[in-house]
From TrEMBL:
Keyword Ribonucleoprotein set for record: no
Alphabetized UniProt keyword annotations: Membrane, Transmembrane, Transmembrane helix
Region (Disordered) location: 1-22, 50-106
Organism per entry: Streptomyces malaysiense
Protein name: Lipoprotein
Biased segments, Basic residues type: 10-21
Membrane-spanning residues: 29-48
Polar residues bias locations: 87-98
Length: 433
Protein backbone atom coordinates (compact mmCIF):
# COMPACT_ATOMS: atom_id res chain seq x y z
CA UNK A 1 0.00 0.00 0.00
CA UNK A 2 1.41 3.36 -0.99
CA UNK A 3 1.71 6.09 1.60
CA UNK A 4 2.33 9.66 0.60
CA UNK A 5 4.95 11.93 2.10
CA UNK A 6 3.86 15.31 3.39
CA UNK A 7 5.01 18.41 1.54
CA UNK A 8 7.05 19.53 4.54
CA UNK A 9 9.39 16.63 3.88
CA UNK A 10 7.96 14.52 6.70
CA UNK A 11 6.97 10.91 6.22
CA UNK A 12 4.07 9.22 7.98
CA UNK A 13 4.43 5.48 7.86
CA UNK A 14 3.24 2.55 9.90
CA UNK A 15 5.09 -0.57 10.91
CA UNK A 16 3.94 -4.00 12.04
CA UNK A 17 4.09 -5.24 15.62
CA UNK A 18 7.09 -4.63 17.85
CA UNK A 19 9.89 -7.16 18.15
CA UNK A 20 12.88 -7.15 20.45
CA UNK A 21 15.86 -9.46 20.42
CA UNK A 22 18.26 -9.47 23.38
CA UNK A 23 21.91 -8.73 22.71
CA UNK A 24 24.74 -11.04 23.70
CA UNK A 25 27.87 -9.51 25.20
CA UNK A 26 31.15 -10.62 26.65
CA UNK A 27 33.84 -8.61 28.47
CA UNK A 28 36.07 -6.40 26.31
CA UNK A 29 35.10 -8.05 23.00
CA UNK A 30 31.56 -7.36 21.88
CA UNK A 31 29.41 -9.73 19.85
CA UNK A 32 25.83 -9.14 18.78
CA UNK A 33 22.59 -11.01 18.59
CA UNK A 34 21.80 -12.83 15.40
CA UNK A 35 18.45 -11.24 14.68
CA UNK A 36 17.40 -7.63 14.24
CA UNK A 37 14.37 -5.79 13.07
CA UNK A 38 15.34 -3.50 10.21
CA UNK A 39 13.54 -0.40 8.96
CA UNK A 40 11.64 -0.81 5.72
CA UNK A 41 10.25 2.72 5.88
CA UNK A 42 6.96 2.16 4.07
CA UNK A 43 6.36 -1.56 3.91
CA UNK A 44 7.54 -2.28 7.46
CA UNK A 45 10.69 -4.14 8.49
CA UNK A 46 13.03 -6.76 7.11
CA UNK A 47 14.52 -9.56 9.21
CA UNK A 48 18.28 -9.88 9.33
CA UNK A 49 20.17 -12.94 10.54
CA UNK A 50 23.86 -13.51 10.99
CA UNK A 51 25.97 -15.92 13.08
CA UNK A 52 27.15 -14.65 16.46
CA UNK A 53 30.56 -13.69 15.16
CA UNK A 54 31.82 -10.23 14.32
CA UNK A 55 34.91 -11.30 12.42
CA UNK A 56 34.21 -10.08 8.86
CA UNK A 57 35.44 -11.47 5.60
CA UNK A 58 36.74 -9.04 3.00
CA UNK A 59 35.12 -9.16 -0.42
CA UNK A 60 36.35 -7.14 -3.33
CA UNK A 61 34.22 -8.39 -6.20
CA UNK A 62 36.05 -8.24 -9.52
CA UNK A 63 34.78 -8.23 -13.02
CA UNK A 64 34.60 -6.16 -16.17
CA UNK A 65 32.37 -3.14 -16.52
CA UNK A 66 28.97 -3.68 -17.99
CA UNK A 67 28.07 -1.50 -20.97
CA UNK A 68 25.93 1.48 -20.12
CA UNK A 69 26.05 5.12 -19.02
CA UNK A 70 29.33 6.28 -17.52
CA UNK A 71 30.36 9.38 -15.59
CA UNK A 72 31.23 12.44 -17.63
CA UNK A 73 34.82 12.47 -18.89
CA UNK A 74 37.36 13.93 -16.50
CA UNK A 75 39.73 16.53 -17.91
CA UNK A 76 42.05 19.10 -16.42
CA UNK A 77 39.93 22.02 -15.30
CA UNK A 78 40.63 25.33 -17.04
CA UNK A 79 39.30 27.43 -14.15
CA UNK A 80 36.09 28.36 -15.94
CA UNK A 81 32.49 27.39 -15.29
CA UNK A 82 31.22 25.00 -17.95
CA UNK A 83 27.42 24.98 -18.25
CA UNK A 84 26.09 21.53 -19.09
CA UNK A 85 23.04 20.39 -21.02
CA UNK A 86 20.05 22.71 -20.73
CA UNK A 87 21.78 24.83 -18.09
CA UNK A 88 20.53 22.86 -15.08
CA UNK A 89 24.04 21.87 -14.04
CA UNK A 90 27.61 22.98 -14.58
CA UNK A 91 31.18 21.92 -13.98
CA UNK A 92 33.07 24.26 -11.68
CA UNK A 93 36.15 22.16 -11.04
CA UNK A 94 36.94 19.61 -8.35
CA UNK A 95 34.90 19.92 -5.18
CA UNK A 96 36.68 22.03 -2.60
CA UNK A 97 37.12 21.58 1.15
CA UNK A 98 36.82 17.80 1.31
CA UNK A 99 38.97 15.49 3.39
CA UNK A 100 42.29 14.60 1.79
CA UNK A 101 42.67 10.82 2.11
CA UNK A 102 46.04 9.58 3.31
CA UNK A 103 47.19 6.08 4.30
CA UNK A 104 47.67 5.35 7.98
CA UNK A 105 51.26 5.59 9.12
CA UNK A 106 52.81 2.56 10.82
CA UNK A 107 51.31 2.23 14.28
CA UNK A 108 48.85 5.10 13.76
CA UNK A 109 45.36 4.87 15.22
CA UNK A 110 42.68 5.49 12.58
CA UNK A 111 40.35 8.46 12.88
CA UNK A 112 36.93 7.82 14.35
CA UNK A 113 34.78 8.42 11.29
CA UNK A 114 31.11 9.30 11.78
CA UNK A 115 28.73 9.68 8.82
CA UNK A 116 25.42 11.49 9.19
CA UNK A 117 23.22 10.83 6.16
CA UNK A 118 19.75 12.03 5.17
CA UNK A 119 17.22 10.21 2.98
CA UNK A 120 15.11 12.09 0.45
CA UNK A 121 16.80 15.49 0.90
CA UNK A 122 14.06 18.09 0.41
CA UNK A 123 14.00 21.65 1.72
CA UNK A 124 10.45 21.70 3.05
CA UNK A 125 8.62 24.28 5.13
CA UNK A 126 10.52 23.07 8.21
CA UNK A 127 13.90 24.03 6.68
CA UNK A 128 15.58 20.90 8.02
CA UNK A 129 17.86 20.54 4.98
CA UNK A 130 19.33 23.98 5.63
CA UNK A 131 19.40 23.38 9.39
CA UNK A 132 21.64 20.31 9.13
CA UNK A 133 23.73 21.79 6.35
CA UNK A 134 24.41 24.74 8.65
CA UNK A 135 25.12 22.45 11.61
CA UNK A 136 27.64 20.58 9.51
CA UNK A 137 29.39 23.83 8.69
CA UNK A 138 29.35 24.97 12.32
CA UNK A 139 30.98 21.78 13.58
CA UNK A 140 33.48 21.36 10.73
CA UNK A 141 31.59 18.31 9.50
CA UNK A 142 30.42 16.99 6.16
CA UNK A 143 27.30 14.92 5.58
CA UNK A 144 25.68 12.89 2.81
CA UNK A 145 22.37 14.15 1.45
CA UNK A 146 20.48 11.54 -0.58
CA UNK A 147 18.34 13.40 -3.12
CA UNK A 148 15.09 11.91 -4.43
CA UNK A 149 14.98 12.62 -8.16
CA UNK A 150 11.30 13.55 -8.37
CA UNK A 151 11.93 16.30 -5.80
CA UNK A 152 13.17 18.34 -8.76
CA UNK A 153 10.24 17.34 -11.00
CA UNK A 154 7.04 19.47 -10.94
CA UNK A 155 3.84 17.63 -10.23
CA UNK A 156 2.50 18.91 -13.55
CA UNK A 157 5.21 16.85 -15.26
CA UNK A 158 4.85 13.73 -13.15
CA UNK A 159 3.95 11.56 -16.15
CA UNK A 160 7.61 11.83 -17.17
CA UNK A 161 8.38 9.39 -14.39
CA UNK A 162 7.92 5.72 -15.25
CA UNK A 163 8.69 3.79 -12.08
CA UNK A 164 9.53 0.13 -12.72
CA UNK A 165 6.41 -2.04 -12.46
CA UNK A 166 4.21 1.05 -11.99
CA UNK A 167 2.05 3.34 -14.10
CA UNK A 168 3.49 6.64 -15.40
CA UNK A 169 3.46 9.29 -12.70
CA UNK A 170 2.87 6.86 -9.84
CA UNK A 171 4.97 7.38 -6.70
CA UNK A 172 4.73 6.31 -3.06
CA UNK A 173 5.63 9.85 -1.97
CA UNK A 174 4.24 13.24 -2.92
CA UNK A 175 5.72 15.36 -5.66
CA UNK A 176 7.16 18.67 -4.41
CA UNK A 177 5.55 22.06 -4.62
CA UNK A 178 7.12 24.52 -7.05
CA UNK A 179 8.50 26.52 -4.13
CA UNK A 180 10.09 23.45 -2.60
CA UNK A 181 11.86 22.72 -5.88
CA UNK A 182 13.34 26.21 -5.73
CA UNK A 183 14.44 25.95 -2.11
CA UNK A 184 15.83 22.44 -2.59
CA UNK A 185 17.93 23.61 -5.53
CA UNK A 186 19.41 26.35 -3.35
CA UNK A 187 20.28 23.90 -0.58
CA UNK A 188 21.86 21.46 -3.03
CA UNK A 189 24.11 24.25 -4.31
CA UNK A 190 25.16 25.34 -0.83
CA UNK A 191 25.62 21.77 0.40
CA UNK A 192 27.95 20.95 -2.47
CA UNK A 193 29.92 24.19 -2.13
CA UNK A 194 30.47 23.40 1.55
CA UNK A 195 31.97 19.99 0.78
CA UNK A 196 29.00 17.72 1.42
CA UNK A 197 28.22 14.60 -0.58
CA UNK A 198 25.14 14.49 -2.84
CA UNK A 199 23.91 10.93 -3.35
CA UNK A 200 20.66 9.47 -4.61
CA UNK A 201 17.55 8.12 -2.90
CA UNK A 202 16.28 7.23 -6.40
CA UNK A 203 12.75 8.36 -7.35
CA UNK A 204 9.39 6.85 -6.43
CA UNK A 205 10.18 5.33 -3.01
CA UNK A 206 8.38 2.09 -3.85
CA UNK A 207 8.61 -0.67 -1.22
CA UNK A 208 7.29 -4.16 -0.76
CA UNK A 209 5.45 -5.67 -3.74
CA UNK A 210 6.75 -4.09 -6.97
CA UNK A 211 9.37 -2.23 -4.97
CA UNK A 212 13.12 -2.37 -5.39
CA UNK A 213 13.32 -5.87 -3.99
CA UNK A 214 11.37 -7.11 -7.01
CA UNK A 215 13.29 -5.11 -9.63
CA UNK A 216 15.66 -6.60 -12.16
CA UNK A 217 19.07 -5.14 -12.94
CA UNK A 218 17.63 -3.42 -16.00
CA UNK A 219 14.76 -1.96 -13.99
CA UNK A 220 17.20 -0.53 -11.47
CA UNK A 221 19.13 1.01 -14.37
CA UNK A 222 15.91 2.59 -15.61
CA UNK A 223 15.34 4.08 -12.16
CA UNK A 224 18.90 5.45 -12.11
CA UNK A 225 18.67 6.85 -15.65
CA UNK A 226 15.46 8.65 -14.74
CA UNK A 227 17.08 10.08 -11.62
CA UNK A 228 19.81 11.57 -13.80
CA UNK A 229 17.25 12.87 -16.28
CA UNK A 230 15.25 14.70 -13.62
CA UNK A 231 18.25 16.32 -11.92
CA UNK A 232 20.01 17.24 -15.16
CA UNK A 233 16.93 18.72 -16.82
CA UNK A 234 15.17 20.59 -14.05
CA UNK A 235 15.30 23.83 -16.03
CA UNK A 236 13.51 22.26 -18.98
CA UNK A 237 10.96 20.59 -16.73
CA UNK A 238 10.28 23.61 -14.48
CA UNK A 239 10.76 26.44 -16.96
CA UNK A 240 12.71 28.39 -14.33
CA UNK A 241 15.05 30.93 -15.92
CA UNK A 242 15.99 32.91 -12.81
CA UNK A 243 17.99 30.19 -11.01
CA UNK A 244 21.66 29.55 -11.86
CA UNK A 245 22.91 26.08 -12.76
CA UNK A 246 23.86 23.77 -9.94
CA UNK A 247 27.66 24.00 -9.56
CA UNK A 248 28.36 20.32 -10.16
CA UNK A 249 27.96 17.55 -12.70
CA UNK A 250 25.73 14.81 -11.27
CA UNK A 251 27.46 12.12 -13.32
CA UNK A 252 30.76 13.08 -11.73
CA UNK A 253 29.59 13.72 -8.19
CA UNK A 254 26.91 11.11 -7.49
CA UNK A 255 28.86 7.99 -6.59
CA UNK A 256 26.38 6.20 -4.33
CA UNK A 257 22.93 6.06 -2.83
CA UNK A 258 20.52 4.42 -0.43
CA UNK A 259 17.59 2.40 -1.76
CA UNK A 260 14.13 3.18 -0.36
CA UNK A 261 13.22 0.79 2.44
CA UNK A 262 16.70 -0.76 2.15
CA UNK A 263 15.33 -3.15 -0.49
CA UNK A 264 16.87 -4.65 -3.59
CA UNK A 265 20.59 -4.31 -2.95
CA UNK A 266 21.70 -7.52 -4.78
CA UNK A 267 20.42 -6.36 -8.20
CA UNK A 268 21.15 -2.72 -7.42
CA UNK A 269 24.84 -3.53 -6.90
CA UNK A 270 24.93 -5.24 -10.30
CA UNK A 271 23.31 -2.20 -11.88
CA UNK A 272 25.47 0.56 -10.43
CA UNK A 273 28.89 -0.71 -11.48
CA UNK A 274 28.35 0.56 -15.02
CA UNK A 275 27.79 4.08 -13.63
CA UNK A 276 31.12 4.24 -11.87
CA UNK A 277 29.56 4.39 -8.41
CA UNK A 278 31.82 3.54 -5.50
CA UNK A 279 29.58 2.98 -2.47
CA UNK A 280 26.10 1.81 -1.54
CA UNK A 281 24.27 2.46 1.73
CA UNK A 282 21.31 0.14 1.05
CA UNK A 283 22.33 -2.83 3.20
CA UNK A 284 19.61 -3.59 5.80
CA UNK A 285 22.10 -3.55 8.66
CA UNK A 286 25.28 -4.95 10.15
CA UNK A 287 27.50 -4.97 13.20
CA UNK A 288 29.71 -1.99 14.01
CA UNK A 289 32.66 -3.31 12.06
CA UNK A 290 34.98 -1.88 9.45
CA UNK A 291 33.31 -1.93 6.01
CA UNK A 292 34.07 -4.26 3.16
CA UNK A 293 33.06 -4.38 -0.47
CA UNK A 294 30.20 -6.17 -2.18
CA UNK A 295 30.57 -6.73 -5.89
CA UNK A 296 33.45 -4.23 -5.91
CA UNK A 297 31.36 -1.50 -4.22
CA UNK A 298 31.93 -0.20 -0.70
CA UNK A 299 29.07 -1.45 1.48
CA UNK A 300 28.10 1.15 4.09
CA UNK A 301 25.18 -0.35 6.07
CA UNK A 302 23.14 1.03 8.90
CA UNK A 303 24.52 -0.38 12.14
CA UNK A 304 23.23 -2.12 15.23
CA UNK A 305 23.41 0.05 18.35
CA UNK A 306 22.56 -0.75 21.99
CA UNK A 307 18.95 0.24 22.64
CA UNK A 308 17.58 0.88 26.14
CA UNK A 309 20.91 0.43 27.94
CA UNK A 310 21.84 -2.59 25.86
CA UNK A 311 18.66 -4.64 26.32
CA UNK A 312 18.65 -5.28 22.57
CA UNK A 313 20.28 -4.05 19.37
CA UNK A 314 18.50 -1.73 16.92
CA UNK A 315 19.51 0.05 13.77
CA UNK A 316 21.08 3.49 13.67
CA UNK A 317 18.11 5.23 12.05
CA UNK A 318 15.28 7.41 13.31
CA UNK A 319 12.58 5.07 12.00
CA UNK A 320 13.93 2.20 14.06
CA UNK A 321 13.71 4.24 17.25
CA UNK A 322 10.18 5.24 16.25
CA UNK A 323 9.26 1.61 15.66
CA UNK A 324 10.60 0.39 18.97
CA UNK A 325 9.36 3.31 21.06
CA UNK A 326 5.88 3.97 19.68
CA UNK A 327 5.20 0.95 17.50
CA UNK A 328 5.71 2.99 14.33
CA UNK A 329 3.16 5.63 15.30
CA UNK A 330 4.50 9.06 14.42
CA UNK A 331 2.43 10.74 17.15
CA UNK A 332 2.98 8.55 20.19
CA UNK A 333 2.35 9.34 23.84
CA UNK A 334 3.65 12.91 24.45
CA UNK A 335 4.30 12.02 28.10
CA UNK A 336 7.08 9.72 26.91
CA UNK A 337 8.77 12.10 24.47
CA UNK A 338 11.48 13.23 26.89
CA UNK A 339 12.24 9.63 27.88
CA UNK A 340 12.36 8.46 24.26
CA UNK A 341 14.57 11.35 23.23
CA UNK A 342 17.06 10.53 25.98
CA UNK A 343 16.98 6.84 25.05
CA UNK A 344 17.81 7.81 21.46
CA UNK A 345 20.69 10.03 22.53
CA UNK A 346 21.99 7.33 24.87
CA UNK A 347 21.89 4.70 22.11
CA UNK A 348 23.78 6.87 19.67
CA UNK A 349 26.40 7.72 22.29
CA UNK A 350 26.72 4.10 23.42
CA UNK A 351 27.33 3.03 19.83
CA UNK A 352 29.81 5.85 19.37
CA UNK A 353 31.72 5.14 22.57
CA UNK A 354 31.86 1.42 21.83
CA UNK A 355 33.95 2.02 18.71
CA UNK A 356 35.65 5.29 19.71
CA UNK A 357 37.30 3.51 22.63
CA UNK A 358 37.42 0.24 20.70
CA UNK A 359 37.98 -0.68 17.07
CA UNK A 360 37.42 2.80 15.64
CA UNK A 361 35.01 1.31 13.07
CA UNK A 362 33.00 4.06 11.33
CA UNK A 363 29.63 4.95 12.85
CA UNK A 364 26.82 5.32 10.31
CA UNK A 365 23.70 7.29 11.27
CA UNK A 366 20.82 7.50 8.79
CA UNK A 367 17.80 9.76 9.22
CA UNK A 368 14.98 11.62 7.52
CA UNK A 369 13.82 15.20 7.66
CA UNK A 370 10.80 14.56 9.90
CA UNK A 371 8.94 15.58 13.05
CA UNK A 372 7.93 12.22 14.45
CA UNK A 373 7.00 12.09 18.12
CA UNK A 374 7.39 15.81 18.62
CA UNK A 375 10.68 16.02 16.64
CA UNK A 376 12.54 14.06 19.33
CA UNK A 377 14.74 12.27 16.77
CA UNK A 378 15.82 15.56 15.23
CA UNK A 379 16.47 16.94 18.71
CA UNK A 380 18.58 13.86 19.47
CA UNK A 381 20.75 14.52 16.41
CA UNK A 382 21.05 18.18 17.42
CA UNK A 383 22.38 17.01 20.78
CA UNK A 384 24.88 14.40 19.60
CA UNK A 385 26.54 16.34 16.78
CA UNK A 386 28.20 18.80 19.20
CA UNK A 387 29.20 15.92 21.50
CA UNK A 388 30.65 13.72 18.79
CA UNK A 389 32.09 15.94 16.07
CA UNK A 390 34.19 17.99 18.51
CA UNK A 391 35.99 15.04 20.13
CA UNK A 392 39.69 14.47 19.59
CA UNK A 393 40.38 12.09 16.71
CA UNK A 394 36.83 12.27 15.34
CA UNK A 395 36.12 13.15 11.72
CA UNK A 396 32.47 13.68 10.81
CA UNK A 397 32.60 12.97 7.08
CA UNK A 398 30.45 12.05 4.11
CA UNK A 399 30.20 8.59 2.61
CA UNK A 400 32.21 9.86 -0.33
CA UNK A 401 35.06 11.00 1.91
CA UNK A 402 35.04 7.68 3.76
CA UNK A 403 35.20 5.77 0.46
CA UNK A 404 38.14 7.94 -0.59
CA UNK A 405 39.94 7.20 2.69
CA UNK A 406 39.28 3.46 2.52
CA UNK A 407 40.56 3.35 -1.05
CA UNK A 408 44.04 4.61 -0.14
CA UNK A 409 44.65 2.22 2.79
CA UNK A 410 46.86 -0.83 2.42
CA UNK A 411 44.89 -4.07 1.97
CA UNK A 412 46.75 -5.54 4.94
CA UNK A 413 45.68 -2.60 7.12
CA UNK A 414 42.03 -2.98 6.12
CA UNK A 415 42.17 -6.73 6.75
CA UNK A 416 43.55 -6.14 10.24
CA UNK A 417 40.87 -3.53 11.00
CA UNK A 418 38.13 -5.90 9.85
CA UNK A 419 39.34 -8.58 12.24
CA UNK A 420 38.40 -6.44 15.25
CA UNK A 421 35.27 -6.72 17.34
CA UNK A 422 33.51 -3.36 17.80
CA UNK A 423 34.67 -2.77 21.40
CA UNK A 424 38.10 -4.29 20.90
CA UNK A 425 40.91 -1.77 21.31
CA UNK A 426 44.00 -3.42 19.84
CA UNK A 427 47.68 -2.72 20.03
CA UNK A 428 47.61 -0.25 17.16
CA UNK A 429 51.22 -0.99 16.25
CA UNK A 430 49.97 -4.37 14.98
CA UNK A 431 47.31 -2.88 12.65
CA UNK A 432 49.03 -0.42 10.32
CA UNK A 433 52.49 -1.64 9.43
Amino acid sequence: MSRKKEQTGRGRRRAPGRRRVPAATRPQIFTLAALLVVASLVAGYLALSRPDDTTPTAASGKGGKEPGPTPSATAKWDGKTHVLGDGSTSYTGPQQGTLKPVPLKPGEKPPQFVVFSWDGALQGDDHLFSHYREMAKEYNAHMTFFLTGIYLLPKSKKDLYHGPMHEPGDAAIDYPTDEHIRTTLEQLRLAYEQGNDIGTHFNGHFCGAKGGGDWSVQQWKSEIDQFYSFVENWKTNTGYTDIPPLPFDFKKEVIGGRAPCLEGQPNLLKAIKSYGWRYDASSPGDFQIWPTKKNGIWDFPLEMLPYENGKFQGLSMDFNFLYNQSGGETDGDPAKYAQWEQQTVDSYMAGFNRVYYGSRAPLFIGNHFEHWNGSIYMKAIDRIIPQICTKKGVKCVSFRELADWMDVQKPSTLAALRSLDPAQSPDWSTIAK
